[in-house]
Amino acid sequence: MTIAILVAGAILGISAVLVVLRMTLGPTMLDRAISFDVLAAVLLAGIALDVAADRDADAVPILLVLTLLGFVGSVSIARFFPGSDDVDEPRLDEDPAGDEQASSDRADDGTFGRPTGGGLL
What we know:
By secondary structure, this protein is mostly helical. It has helices spanning 2-25, 29-54, 60-80, 100-105.
């Protein structure tokens, strides 16, 4: 068991060095952002390895918080990076005042033309 933990720690250390090298040399900002996300994943794996080696679960909440921060950071970088087609940009052929069809779909009871069944959806 100790040999497996040492080998896994060595692999994580080598991968951390390579990721820092990619972060330093990366030609674009997106390469640096992705390598930062990978470095966070390697850090998480290192903390998980320490938790497994010590058989002490005190660091598990730290793992959860770091995982959430890594996910939110990755999603925000992917969403707001130039060239992403997910960010809504105003189109030149649209009427800025609104769409006449959308206003005519609205019913008087405020349901906006949706069925109002008694279910959860």
